[in-house]
Amino acid sequence: MKKYILILFVFLLSVQITAQYKPWTSSKQPLKEVKTLKKQIKKPEFRKVDYLITDFGAVGDGKTKNTEAFKKAIEKCNADGGGRVVVPNGVFLTGAIYLKSNVNLHLSDGSTILFSQDSNDYPIVFTRWEGMECMNYSSLIYAYEEENIAVTGKGTLDGNSDNDNWWFWCGATKYGYNETRPGRQNPARAKLHEYMAQRKPARERIFGDGYYLRPNFVQPYKSKNFYMADVLVKNSPMWNLNPVLCENVLIERVKVISHGPNNDGFDPEACKNVWIKDSYFDTGDDCIAIKSGRDEDGRDIGRPAENHIIENCEMKDGHGGVVIGSEIAGGARNIYALNNVMDSKNLDRALRIKTSSSRGGTIENVFFYNTKVGAYKEAAVRFNMFYEKPGNHIPTIRNIWVENLTVDKGGKYAVLSAAYESSPVTDFTMINAKMTGVKIPYKVDHMKNVNLKDVTVNGKPLTELKP
């Protein structure tokens, strides 16, 4: 009897999940959803009390290490009920900074926080590395289970990375690696994959010194109400802005310029209610890449990336402008990109969705609206279900809406898609798109329910996408 009840429950659950999926029939629907979502995302408020780091012993000469001064100022601010920890004019060298609840780390105009190149200045913490949980170096700015935290002001966050510091750990000769130098991440990366596949407890996956897994730049983890505004972020060891499992994230007027390996600009990972606007990205990897965890970790935790707005941003160099994946095993839904501008001969794709059957998960409800693209190299819209190795978890991509897209100096393809026959890209709509300078209008295999309206490539109407 219990067996039949369980079967009935699973059946009803599958019916419910299927019933919940409803593709958009008009752009009015996602635009209404965006309006509602904006009302839910709010920046945190802080006490109007300032804590100047120089009052805690900090020296802005670019040489004195101020890790302890930052720690004391932040802890005092937190203990008192919150406020701003203010960085004045000067260059303040430091190791990892840990943000506590109700603290706004504020960089005055003309200030720079310069991060140490010594890995000993970054304690081992619980983190994610390429979508896999482990114990590794703290990100340069880190928080864990904190609330109401911010990094603001017109100063500079300098990760102090180059081909002689951090970057060469990636193992690529173009970033300074050679066989005479100690340090290459490849063996540790493979070991972390092995631990994840074995489902070894995350806190027992211990890395750090001797493993060469680079830290990310800014990583609030399992935190609520994270705000970032106005700062310049540059020279990151790896991913730049990487909130993980956070809720209510607001980023505005931030500039990220960082051309090292895996230097993604903004990687919200398994986060809910995220809004990034009026920001600028010129990066060595994807400008914005939405993620939800890799393979077993992503599926086991089961937290999708959901309810993200990307608005009024400018993207230059990067593997992709707006990207979903590849660490997307937890799925993604309700992703809205509006009024963005992209233009660079080094930009590979405008909208890119990349996953694989080692990931699985469902990517749905992606709205790409009012986008102006100058140049790109590979494709304006790219779907790929064969990114990295295959597995036994066939992904789903559905309800993708592209409207009001202009491309002036297109690359190889307008639309490029590779999907499984058993799981075609489903409900793809493109309306009012004008693309010029494109070599080949499209190359696709398995797509279902494609709707093209007022789409032209090199002045010629594009009315269908056939394999």
From TrEMBL:
Q: InterPro entries per the record? A: GH28_Enzymes (IPR051801), Glyco_hydro_28 (IPR000743), PbH1 (IPR006626), Pectin_lyas_fold (IPR012334), Pectin_lyase_fold/virulence (IPR011050), RHGA/B-epi-like_pectate_lyase (IPR024535)
Q: Which residues form the Rhamnogalacturonase A/B/Epimerase-like pectate lyase domain?
A: 53-105
GO terms for MF: hydrolase activity
Q: Which N-terminal residues, if any, form the signal peptide?
A: 1-19
Keyword set, alphabetical order: Glycosidase, Hydrolase, Signal
What SUPFAM superfamilies does the record tag this protein with?
Pectin lyase-like
- State the family it belongs to: Belongs to the glycosyl hydrolase 28 family.
What is the protein's name according to its record?
Glycoside hydrolase family 28 protein
